UniProtKB/TrEMBL annotation:
Family: Belongs to the glycosyl hydrolase 47 family.
The protein's Enzyme Commission number: 3.2.1.-
UniProt membrane topology term: Single-pass type II membrane protein
Protein name: alpha-1,2-Mannosidase
Residues the entry annotates as binding Ca(2+): 624
Keywords for this protein: Calcium, Disulfide bond, Glycoprotein, Glycosidase, Golgi apparatus, Hydrolase, Membrane, Metal-binding, Signal-anchor, Transmembrane, Transmembrane helix
Amino acid sequence: QNLAGCAKMRLPSASRQAIPLSRLALVTVLCISLLSLILSIAPLHSQHPGGRLHFPGQISDRHGLGPIEPDPHLLSDRAAIFAGAEADHRLALATARLRRRLMSAAAEAGALRVNAQTSQAAFSRLLAAARYPAVFRSAALSPPGPDTGADLNNATVRSMRRRVRAMLRSAWRAYWRYARGANELRPIGGAPAGPGAGDADLLGGAARLGASAIDSLDSLWMAGLTEEFSAAAEWTLNELSFDQDATVSVFEMNIRFLGGLLSAYFLTGDRRFVAKATGLASRLLPAFATPSGLPRSLVNLRTGAAADHPWAPFGCSVLAEAGSLQLEFSLLSELTGDRVYADAARRARHAIGMAPRPYGGLYPNFVHSGRPDKLAVQEASLGSLGDSFYEYLLKEWLRTNGTDTESCRLFLDAARAIEHGGLLRRSTGSGKFLYLAPLKDGRPVDNRMEHLACFAGGLFALAANATPSCAAGGRQLDSERTRRRWLSIGVELTRTCREAYRRSAVGLGPEAFEFDNNVEAVAIRPEDKTHMLRPETVESYFHLWRITGDQRYRDWAWETVEALERYSRIVSTGGFAILSDVYSARPPVGDLQPSYFLAETLKYLYLIFSDRDYFSSAQWVFNTEGHPLPVRQT
Ligand code: DMJ
């Protein structure tokens, strides 16, 4: 039994993989110790058949009456009693010795395991350093980064850049002064935005998770706002705790927090950001415990209790949410050496891949986490519910420098479906605008494009400009014809979104805009007339400016800067507020400064007036919240 037990002894798997020789040595020592103990105990056992103290035959059989009690007056019985007691004593000593050895072997195995984990972490750090050499070089740049370069060669551009930096500083200071540690700011009231405001319900309601602080880290760093960056970083590292009884959106925590923390790590080289990201990611993992691995939308950070959005079809997760995890989760696995995150995101992508695709290869906006192979809804969109799923297919392929060929293949199929499945439409009025409208039950729901879908101009331009190629089903991404077509789709969609800005009274675009014979790129419904400080249009200006170098994107971006300053800035607090009607010359303001305004809108504007090599697209991929993540070099 003991020998069998010894053979069964196993070190933890990490030790097995990392230091097989040490494991072998440890197991051998244990086996030899146990064997010698067994041999020393063996004679005692022969005197104790059945495991109980039993005396030699002459005692039990003395009168031929079967076993009887030993007689302590008989000399032979006394000797046997003493011998039995002595044997018990030796057995007790041997057992105690055995227990001590086992305990010290267990402690040794524990120490080996810790060592193995430490060397595994050191190894993954080395691997990451090898994979991201360019990043570590650029991290050596101290902010504000290059203030020179071909694209910054005139004083006007430099002053525009300074103006955007001042806006970022102002928005940040207002948040820091009035809502420090809260998720978002009420720029009019000068207070934290509570439950019910903006995205608060996706960020834990009243929980103090500091979404705006995390979302601002890299923007502040990139704009050279060193003092502000240090305050945000110190708060993040020393005061922020994810151990909160808060139900949050897995997607929002991923794109804003994981993205922001990982990006901060690459800018500073400070491993504590990775530790913070790991702590958060492990709190999101319970959401992935579904039959298909498709994460549920919401999770409680403390208890791990997961749920679907109350407004989603029963048992379903949202395509854009479950499908926008790959960039951050894979990178986290690379940095920590723990595959659990990459595997979780990949399983989610595979589950989405099982969904029936209704419109020539488009994906349904909702997927059932128990039965992903059943079609949950006949709905597809490049705006809300669908958007960043398509974005991540392209970007994970770019981030992995062409290594994730599955991502490339999926993107190629999806891009063809976007082009030909009915989402992409042309207006019938005189403008002949190209736009994207959601599909429901096989038809466009209405001829209405959401602001959220305005990122697609930049996406198509990025795809056209992609350098790594992947062969998928015989088609090459780098076919010149495909590139030209994608670039022109990107240019046209961006023109459409800019038109929606231009046709408003304030030069800022509405939340959604419609097209028919008489109306083009204008919001009709009251709820569509708001301007939410969203980034998607300037995000497309950013990509197109970088790719084409066409001055008009800088001009359009500057119009946006001026409009934001004029209509959105709240003088009393310095914050920026959403507008509730962009067709009014004196638009009413709404009391919210969303965190993505600092993470994306202002960052893209700042980069448009920076040199194109600053955070160049060859070295960085921006996640869907605008956080730059490095392109893997090997
Ligand atoms: C951001 O949080 C992200 O860009 C997301 O992908 C969608 N929308 C908001 C901003 O509009």
